RNA sequence: GGCGCCGUAGUGUAGCGGUUAACACAUCUGACUUUCGAGUCAGACAUCGUGGGUUCGAAUCCCACCGGCGUCCCCA
């Protein structure tokens, strides 16, 4: 099985592109086949320098590095494989030969119409509420006229001659049977006047020559499918299987766009998303395993992916689930790896963290709650700095911590904790001591714990009170309780 | 406008003629754990786009309509 991903080097890799690449890669790899990267740079005006490197970097980051075609060698763009070149601008001769073939066989004809004429024609058609289509002006030209114009070097394109009385049907791997009427299809330009092919010609020629078995691409290509099918027929080739993948959508259901969303893979990477999370999320947008499994490694996706469980309807790109997945994958990181990823960042704000013997223990506490690496310094702040506490955090209506009893609670906490032996100062030890105090005092558990946690951390959301107090240390815990006491009096 | 595709909770999906319409995320309740926006558990949230038809029985099959999107470039 051979599949390919064929982006244009017009900028960063798009998340929709990454999903298509993922599906294509999974399909190839699950059968031990090849996943190759081809660069479609036939529009000279839109090519962006450096885009090829960018795209491959992003694919690599996601774990989808191609095994054939355009690759990166020591950071340089290179090509690997026997069916190259894999960059379309290096295949111009191939396209020209195939275009000539079509011309000779009468399946294509040269067109000398100027852009102005075409534009005027379209305007007219639009005004008359007709579908804008080439009017075949140049199809009426006699052989002599054509030869004369050609000899004079008049700029021209080559157009595909669509049989208007045919009906074209095809069984798409995702959408099932799709049908098109020939008379609604335009005579597509195959070869531009600059000698470059259009997508349509290049796609058919390349995917045949590169022996691609399944073409995966976005649904926006579906209406061009009949043209491609016709081309395969005219060349005398068997078309590949096609799978038109549903679109990724904005909240308003329009095609995912920069205006409303981050669309480049790089942006997600820079925001701190793990490649595992993004891939996992993308896989589930438009595909399901048929089981209730939600968390997938790339390996699992490669094993389990299948086109018959791919979705036909477009999927709204909704970040909430991505963030949940991101949290899940953060939790899966080995503690040491996780610590290494955040150490520098935390150290920048709290230099003590760099030499902190308890660093790992503290990091473990926040790993359960963190979504993004960049949250780490803030989440660890109270281990390295006395928190600024205020009454809004200490008091809690829900936990029934009110002004009139606060002093008593603080007093109880302070006395209980101060009286503990240093050897007992562990999460469990603190728990035991507090449980005892609890039964003696008649307070609710939450009343004590809320105050303790808020006093030590200064925030209404953090790891558990016992663990935090244990890690901060006895002396410091007591000190922070007293800080709150001072706050009451002021 | 022509053509094409699509239409199940807010979102992603399951469902393939008989289910209390399932799962996950989000939101909201309630309970429990060790306080929390963390964890565990239990609930709430769906005119299955609409209308007709076929059938004892339809989210599932048929028809019509509506809506959304895509496409109609010498862009890909």
Low-confidence stretches: none
Structural class: alpha/beta
Rounded to the nearest angstrom, the distance between the terminal CA atoms is 75 Å
List the strand order in the largest sheet.
1-2-3-4
What can you see in these coordinates?
- It is a single chain.
- By secondary structure, this protein is an alpha/beta fold.
- It is 46% helix and 11% strand.
- The chain binds one RNA strand of 76 nucleotides through α4, β8, β13, α11 and α17.
SSE inventory with pairings:
Blueprint: E1 2-5, H1 15-29, E2 34-37, H2 51-62, E3 68-73, E4 76-80, H3 92-104, E5 108-111, H4 115-127, H5 143-151, E6 157-160, E7 167-172, E8 176-181, E9 189-191, H6 199-209, E10 214-218, H7 225-235, E11 241-245, E12 248-249, H8 265-271, H9 275-284, H10 298-304, E13 315-316, H11 319-332, H12 335-349, H13 359-367, H14 376-384, H15 391-394, H16 403-418, H17 427-441, H18 445-457, H19 465-472, H20 474-489
Parallel strand pairs: 1-2, 2-3, 10-11, 12-13
Antiparallel strand pairs: 3-4, 5-6, 6-9, 7-8
The structure holds one RNA strand of 76 nucleotides.
């Amino acid at each position: 099985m051979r599949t390919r991903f064929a982006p244009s080097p017009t900028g960063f890799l798009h998340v929709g592109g990454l999903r298509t690449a993922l599906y294509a890669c999974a399909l190839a790899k699950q059968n031990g086949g090849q996943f190759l990267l081809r660069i479609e740079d036939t529009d000279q005006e839109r090519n962006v320098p450096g885009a090829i490197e960018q795209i491959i970097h992003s694919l690599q980051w996601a774990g989808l590095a191609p095994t054939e075609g355009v690759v990166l060698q020591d950071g340089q763009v290179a090509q690997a494989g026997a069916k190259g070149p894999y960059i379309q601008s290096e295949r111009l001769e191939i396209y020209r030969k195939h275009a000539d073939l079509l011309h000779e066989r009468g399946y294509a004809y040269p067109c000398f119409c100027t852009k102005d004429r075409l534009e005027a024609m379209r305007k007219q058609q639009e005004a008359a509420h007709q579908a804008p289509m080439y009017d075949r002006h140049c199809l009426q030209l006699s052989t002599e006229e054509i030869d004369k114009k050609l000899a004079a070097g008049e700029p021209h394109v080559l157009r595909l001659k669509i049989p208007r009385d045919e009906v074209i049907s095809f069984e798409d791997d995702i959408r099932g049977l799709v049908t098109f009427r020939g008379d609604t299809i335009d005579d597509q330009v195959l070869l531009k006047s600059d000698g470059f092919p259009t997508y349509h010609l290049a796609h058919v020629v390349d995917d045949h020559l590169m022996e691609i078995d399944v073409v995966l691409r976005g649904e926006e290509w579906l209406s061009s499918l009949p043209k491609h099918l016709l081309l395969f027929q005219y060349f005398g080739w068997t078309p590949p299987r096609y799978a038109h993948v549903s679109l990724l959508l904005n909240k308003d259901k329009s095609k995912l766009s920069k205006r409303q969303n981050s669309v480049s893979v790089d942006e997600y990477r820079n925001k701190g998303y793990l490649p595992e999370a993004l891939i996992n999320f993308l896989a589930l947008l438009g595909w399901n395993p048929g089981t209730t499994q939600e968390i997938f490694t790339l390996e699992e996706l490669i094993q389990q992916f299948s086109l018959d469980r791919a979705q036909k309807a477009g999927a709204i790109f909704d970040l909430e689930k991505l963030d949940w997945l991101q949290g899940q994958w953060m939790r899966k990181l080995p503690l040491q790896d996780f610590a290494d990823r955040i150490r520098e960042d935390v150290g920048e704000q709290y230099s003590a963290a760099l030499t902190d013997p308890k660093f790992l223990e503290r990091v473990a506490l926040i790993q359960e709650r963190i979504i993004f690496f960049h949250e780490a310094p803030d989440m660890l702040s109270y281990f390295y700095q006395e928190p600024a506490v205020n009454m809004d955090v200490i008091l809690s209506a829900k936990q029934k911590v009110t002004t009139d009893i606060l002093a008593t609670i603080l007093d109880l906490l302070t006395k209980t904790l101060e009286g503990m032996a240093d050897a007992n100062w562990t999460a469990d030890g603190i728990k035991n001591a507090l449980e005892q105090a609890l039964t003696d005092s008649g307070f609710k558990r939450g009343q004590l714990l809320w105050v303790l946690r808020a006093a030590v951390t200064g925030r209404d959301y953090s790891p558990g009170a016992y663990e935090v107090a244990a890690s901060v240390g006895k002396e410091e815990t007591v000190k922070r309780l007293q800080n709150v006491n001072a706050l009451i009096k002021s």
